[in-house]
Amino acid sequence: MTRAILFTLSSVAALLFGTATQGAVAAVPASSPVAAQPPAEPGPLETVAGTREEGHSGDGGPAVDAKLGEVRDVALDDAGNLYIATRTTSNEKGTYIRRVDPHGTISTVAGGLREDAESNDVEITPDGLAAVSGIATGPEGELYIADAYVGQVLRVEPGGGPAVVAGTGEYEYGGDGGPATSAQLESPVDVAVGDAGEIYIADAGGYIRRVDSEGIITTIAGTGEAEASSGDGGPAVEASFTRPMDVEVDAEGNIYVADLTRLNASEDDIPSHRIRRIDTDGVITTIAGGEECGYTGDGGPAADAELCFPYNMTTTADGTIYLSDTEHHVIRVISPDGTIDSLPTYVDEPTGMAVGPDGALYVGDGDRAQVHRIPLVGSAAGSDAPDTSAEAPDLWADSAPHAVTPVAGTGTDGSSGDGGPATDARLSRADDLAVGPDGTVYVLDDDSRSVRAIEPDGTMVTIAGGGDHGGSPRGPGPMAGDGRSATEAQLSMVHGIDVAPDGTLFMAGYSDGRVRKVSPAGLITTVAGIGIAPDEEDDAETGIDATYMAFGSPEDVAVAPDGSLYVSDSRLNQVFHIGLDGMVRVVAGTGTEGYSGDGGPATEAELDMPSRIDVGADGTLYILDSRERRIRAVTTDGVITTIAGSGSSAYDDPTEDVPATEVFLHVRDLVVDEAGTVYLGAGGSIRQIGPDGIITTLSDTHAAAVALDGHGNLYFSHGHQVSVLPRIHQDPAPASAENEEAGGGANSAPWILVSIGALLAAGTVGGYVLVRRRRSAQPLAAGGGG
């Protein structure tokens, strides 16, 4: 359905990174959770521990084969050991600290079954653990554990067991100025360790406390008064917290606090979804979030953004802060300059985060009982991105013009052959096609829920779908599988694809109501849509943020010359535009099915099941109005006209060399070249509509999907195969006398049956005439009838 086109370098960068600068364009909105990227774009999310089945097993073996309990927090030491705080709640109730060494082997370092494993109450394990909620590592490799239930912070030395470093076990507040082991803690929920070995404790009672290297405890923030967060701009010891739930310290000594309301808050609870900072002078400020639970602000100042239950965070050496937006299954990132963005990565329940010595981000996935690793070094513009500086070679330069050549599929139904010649591979269906900048041909195989690719050397590979990471979370944010390799993700019913000049693949998800993309590095993310049926109050005429857009049934997606996206929706009978401002707006259709509006604004016209779309080099939008059997065009000033088709018909009218609006059409797909010629997969033929509006037949072969590369080679699908019609802009090679006589061969003009009066007849058969398909505007001489 697509064609290869050339973009400016700024538009390629905008497509890749999802941000727009002056003079640049973006294919996805700046406010989208998959649009704006952090300074280092993450690599594919990979699981490093856990099977998604709760339990406690696997010690001495690979961590990826081990069962974990609910993950409460994670930490890493300088040697690369990963510590995981877990709690099992099913058959064997226990609290454990697990360790994964740099080789991936898992062991248990603390904890065990609770003393009363049959009780639903929290019980203390033989190691003195009960409800671990936060862990951290120290400079000497020691592990610190915050246990709110026992009211203490414990330390585990390498090779040793837990020892108390703060708290008496009494749920009170007291002891400042004295030994931390004699002090009272109300509810120690998290712990952090500074470079000098000092310990910071987040006490949900409303305090941040510090234990110095001599073991003396003091309160450095909070009054303990249960009231709305207050005190910004003043001394932290005079400020109030709602509930400090997480604490971190950066390399400069600044302290960060997640100041939150309860997860299951009632109307009487004080709302707070904030990240606050205590600087080295002891002054407290809010750096992100506020009272409202929301998901806004990406690409702008973090102080203006909304967060929702940012329970966990971690910092890096350069001052970057990563934090969980638990409600939206996303990890957000605050750059050193104060700008907030989101990683294009879905994590079902991010419950703990830490940056390892390898520079990767490790994330606990709570109820899924797993830990994931997200590489943060490098970007998608690195070695995995295609080189678009030079034009891809013409793969069919030596082929005879218009000579049909198979490029993929054996003609037998199936889904196999990856890694081998595409011509030996089996395709289930080839519902849509697209051609990348390097000549790669992308094949949408909806029956197998995958997108496959024919590489320039003729090898078949799968690039998206076929994995076991799926599901459609309701609401904005990434979709399950996002942030992983696209081959690990499940695809729903995808109906349309298109490829940007940087090699980014876009997919219209008909059944999940989303537009997703696969980056050149192979990561899949969500661009637009929330998977919820549209509400009558939704107003896409004035604009809806793409991350909140409720599509009906997206049929197709097309990349415009400026880098923005168009999406057709057959359920809503409209076509939408995802603009450079990050908003989705209607560009065609009133939402009422029908056929009307030619010559006027496209937004006031009726469409009837718009399906395939494409965009010309001049910005004209072409729409297949499926049930009306018409092709409609919307100019850049928003005026709609019909350029082909005369109304509903059960068959394709082969009449040629007449205005395209005078013939019946049964079109499956369309694509437009840079000159404005529109090519149609129409019934049993491939047809073309020139800029003058005259329709002719290019080839008498069935085509379900069509796509162009940058050299004028037309790819089309038929049955369980994909073929190419090379160099369609050149006249076909003269047919040999043998072919002319036989009426066959790739370059011959076959004989066909058409209705009487359709063309000048060479001979009649019953109520039809037998004619030779014309290849030019020269009139045919009439033959004898009989």
UniProtKB/TrEMBL annotation:
<keyword id="KW-0812">Transmembrane</keyword>
<feature type="domain" description="Teneurin NHL">
    <location>
        <begin position="299"/>
        <end position="469"/>
    </location>
</feature>
<keyword id="KW-1015">Disulfide bond</keyword>
<feature type="region of interest" description="Disordered">
    <location>
        <begin position="461"/>
        <end position="484"/>
    </location>
</feature>
<feature type="domain" description="Teneurin NHL">
    <location>
        <begin position="595"/>
        <end position="654"/>
    </location>
</feature>
<protein>
    <recommendedName>
        <fullName>Teneurin NHL domain-containing protein</fullName>
    </recommendedName>
</protein>
<dbReference type="InterPro" id="IPR051216">
    <property type="entry name" value="Teneurin"/>
</dbReference>
<keyword id="KW-1133">Transmembrane helix</keyword>
<keyword id="KW-0732">Signal</keyword>
<feature type="region of interest" description="Disordered">
    <location>
        <begin position="402"/>
        <end position="432"/>
    </location>
</feature>
<dbReference type="InterPro" id="IPR056822">
    <property type="entry name" value="TEN_NHL"/>
</dbReference>
<feature type="compositionally biased region" description="Gly residues">
    <location>
        <begin position="411"/>
        <end position="420"/>
    </location>
</feature>
<feature type="domain" description="Teneurin NHL">
    <location>
        <begin position="171"/>
        <end position="225"/>
    </location>
</feature>
<feature type="transmembrane region" description="Helical">
    <location>
        <begin position="751"/>
        <end position="771"/>
    </location>
</feature>
<feature type="compositionally biased region" description="Gly residues">
    <location>
        <begin position="464"/>
        <end position="480"/>
    </location>
</feature>
<keyword id="KW-0677">Repeat</keyword>
<feature type="domain" description="Teneurin NHL">
    <location>
        <begin position="480"/>
        <end position="590"/>
    </location>
</feature>
<keyword id="KW-0472">Membrane</keyword>
<feature type="signal peptide">
    <location>
        <begin position="1"/>
        <end position="26"/>
    </location>
</feature>
<keyword id="KW-0245">EGF-like domain</keyword>
<dbReference type="Pfam" id="PF25021">
    <property type="entry name" value="TEN_NHL"/>
</dbReference>
<dbReference type="InterPro" id="IPR011042">
    <property type="entry name" value="6-blade_b-propeller_TolB-like"/>
</dbReference>
<feature type="region of interest" description="Disordered">
    <location>
        <begin position="33"/>
        <end position="64"/>
    </location>
</feature>
